[in-house]
Amino acid sequence: MILAGAGERLVLSHHAEDRGIFARGALAAALWTRGKSPGLYSMADVLGLSN
Question: If you ran DSSP here, which 8-state letter would residue 36 be given?
């Protein structure tokens, strides 16, 4: 995300030092699906952020 103004900008970035964090997230999402009905889910559902 970049926020910019006249002659300036604010940059927010994320740098992963270990790809294992992505694997752990994928595993957590896969385990979350256990017992769920077939359907379309998003990461907001997995993270408990959906209404």
Answer: P
Distance, in Å, from the CA atom of 22 to the CA atom of 4, rounded to the nearest integer, reads 30
Asked whether 22 and 14 are in contact (CB, 8 A), the reply is: no
Cα separation, 49 vs 36, in Å, equals 17
Q: State pTM to two decimals.
A: 0.57
Which residues are paired to 37 by β-bridges? none
Q: Is residue 46 exposed (0-12), middle (13-18) or buried (19+ Cβ within 10 Å)?
A: middle
Q: Is the pLDDT of residue 5 over 80?
A: yes
